[in-house]
Amino acid sequence: MAMEPESPNALPDSPLKEAFITPSINEKCIIAGESYAHYSPLPSVLVNDPSTECVLGIDEAGRGPVLGPMVYAGFYLPLPLERSLLATTHHFDDSKALTPAMRSQLMQSLCTSTSDLFSTCGWAVKVMSARDLSAGMLRPAGSYNLNAQAMDATIEIIKGILDQGVNVKEMYVDTIGAPATYQKRLQGLFPMMKVTVAKKADSLYPCVSAASVAAKVTRDVALEVLYRGVYMHKNGDCFDEQDEKDEGWGSGYPSDARCSNWLRRNMDPVFGWGNECRFSWSTAKDMLEGVGNGVSANGGIKMNWPDPDDDDDDRDMSENARLSDYFAVDDAKGKKKQHELEGWFGEPLSEQVF
């Protein structure tokens, strides 16, 4: 299992240098559309006493957007400190109930070596790229649906934290489906700990609230890094913040008008969009197919690929086809005639020429 090393709290060459950058941000992977995991160092209280019994919370951010990654996070600390440190002292809450500034401040405190959060708490995230989410959901051998991918990300985070030597005795998870089914599976996989899966766990258990903040801050910064990467790829190295305010993609949710408008303006008729988009979402599918409020009545360009299950004659043709064969069109009598692009690549020369 690959673990991302710690990085500085601020990236000096980053377009986001004026904002706090969490150590969980890997700009190279985010822009390339690669999923990755990040684990914080063990807090000193656990380094000094590995037998300390801990509580672990799991939550996610970015399940519904059509743009950007989905992020799962785990947050752990000694059991006796959970409510007093997280809820009473630092006022962690469901990330949706906190302002962006409050979430950022909490994460910065968590990553600051002189803070009590840094010395007592640890955390981890799994950043699941839009490209990988869609690839799983659209794979021809059977859909790897979002719930299954979320479950696997949860299990990966738990195993990664346990592999660090954390003595987890209790775990609380915000559900992704029926709580009882989810809880039964996790309890079977991790019998050494008490597992509780509940709806709205991020507002019930402080460790889940803290996990939701870690996931949300990572998701928000990753979305910003991704947007600027896409913008600069299209427009060169110069980034215009006013353009982002006027033409940006907003939150990445389909219900966000800025997001849907950005998708319409930036859809390539052949390739659609880049690594930033979840092609398996109906929003993207409808635009490509020209359905509803898509880019145009025709949507994207439709591609017809040879069917490997056709009869022998058709299969032989597909296996031995030339690129120019796909430019041949039928005339009114059903006969093949040359498309103007068929001769673009030239004609084969006989040996007699030489």
Strand and helix layout:
Elements (H helix, E strand, L loop, with lengths): L26 H6 L3 E4 L4 H5 L4 E9 L8 E9 L3 H8 L10 H11 L5 H5 L1 E7 L1 H9 L7 H18 L3 E8 L4 H11 L4 E5 L2 H4 L1 H30 L5 H7 L9 H9 L16 H8 L22 H8 L9 E2 L5 E2 L17
Parallel strand pairs: 2-5, 5-6
Antiparallel strand pairs: 1-4, 2-3, 3-4, 7-8
Summarize the structure in short:
It is built from 14 helices and eight strands.
Descriptive report:
- The strands form two sheets. A six-stranded mixed β-sheet has the order 1-4-3-2-5-6. The chain has a two-stranded antiparallel ribbon with strand order 7-8.
- It is built from 14 helices and eight strands.
- It has helices spanning 27-32, 44-48, 82-89, 100-110, 116-120, 130-138, 146-163, 179-189, 201-204, 206-235, 241-247, 257-265, 282-289, 312-319; strands at residues 36-39, 53-61, 70-78, 122-128, 167-174, 194-198, 329-330, 336-337.
- A hairpin with a 5-residue loop joins strand 7 (329-330) and strand 8 (336-337).
Defining traits:
globular; two-stranded antiparallel sheet; 354 residues; alpha/beta; disordered N terminus; six-stranded mixed β-sheet
Alpha carbon gap, first and last residue = 58 Å
* Estimated radius of gyration: 25 Å
**Protein structure class:** alpha/beta
Secondary structure tally: strands:
8
Our count of helices gives 14
Helix content: 25-40%
Quote the beta fraction.
5-15%
Biggest β-sheet, characterized?
6 strands, mixed
Helix/strand order: HEHEEHHHEHHEHEHHHHHHEE
The pLDDT mean sits at 83
Question: What order do the strands of the largest sheet run in, or round the barrel if closed?
Answer: 1-4-3-2-5-6
Mass-distribution shape: globular
Low-confidence stretches: 1-18, 293-297
